[in-house]
Amino acid sequence: MTDRYELTMIDAAMRSGTAFRPSVFEVFARRLPGARRYGVVAGTGRFLQRLAEFRFGDAELASIRPWASADLVDWLAEYRFSGDIRGYAEGELYFPGSPVLVVEGSFAEAVVLETLALSVLNYDSAVANAATRMTRAAKGRPVAEMGSRRANEEAAIAAARAAYIAGFSATSNLAAGSRWGIPTMGTAAHSFTLLHDSEAEAFQAQIDALGVGTTLLVDTYDIEQGIRTAVEVAGTGLGGIRLDSGDLVEVAADARRLLDSLGATGTRITVTSDLDEHAIAGLQASPVDAYGVGTSLVTGSGAPAAGMVYKLVARRGDDGAWVGVAKHSEDKASKPGEKVAVRTLQGGVAVEETVLVTDDEAVLAEAARAGRALQVPLVAGGEVDERWLGAEGVATARERHDASVAELPGDAHRLARGEPVLPTRFR
User: Fold this and answer.
1) S-S: 110 plus which of 105, 253, 389, 417, CB 3.0-4.6 Å?
2) Does the predicted TM-score (pTM) go above 0.85?
3) b vs e for 238-277, b when ≥16 Cβ sit within 10 Å of the residue's Cβ?
């Protein structure tokens, strides 16, 4: 779960006597992917769970012995993170420069977490960034995650979790439901209809098993006839139909008219078929009751990684004082020093991301009065705060996301490319 250069750096630093200098690393994004207007922090709970399990066992140690020093192997055999971590609560929004995660410990024990932290946060946040755009485009209509067949099996579970945090209503993935407490949903695919001798027999079998409140997939053959058959078999109390092909704007409108003419006025219409946030927005005026999204969600809808980086921002000097450090490369510069972040509000509406590079208590108190502190303790002395783990942590993150989005100004959810909806100001 790490890259080789993390270990070669530790090996060299052990030889130079700098491996155990107290250090501060920071996870942040220089920009929002795809010129989006805000980002969503997701994956924190997964990272913390992985951190608690991050060990080098006999097999791992054997694999690095051919090129690692004996001192490094011995150190890794006893590795346990013993430092502190704080960061934005999972589900919180972030902007360019936001100190999403702050890791404090020795250089060695903190640098070895770089790949782990970024692999989790970059993917999960990318999915959450796509999911929040989709749920806002849906304008309160439920959106279900169904992308398991379009991603690596573990990535699929992570995607379902991130999507739920960002407002999705349910997932088709049973592992995600079991592991993270996410509601699951699912009825039947086209193969179920094709299995039977007729569409009517397939619908009857599904209703016998799941009841008339189920959702029938009506476009295996002819959509109009499928709807007529569905109502004939289930009656006007049929729970829903699903449409998975065609021009969904036109097809949904025709389906609604036909259902109403048959007396099935309460039957819901769910649409699927390669949806993304733009397709969902295009269906706002259509008589659609729910959406199912797969490929676009689990691939980040055009931005498959959040672009977060993990950088050393401070270390203790030989005199014991903290020294701010930063990279100065063109287009990749970072801000030195440990940071505290506050979201400045006016009348309950967010107007600025304020990042303070200071430990001056008076300055911090002034900033806190103007807004809301964004960082929370996640790990203390190597002990993970269990509030952020498991199904309870996912539910907390979902609540945090809803509350944070509610603070944004009204134009925050435009789908067009643009500047971040909040400026980031360093003080």
Assistant:
1) 105
2) yes
3) bbbbbbbeeebeebbbbbbebbeebebeebbbbbbbebbb
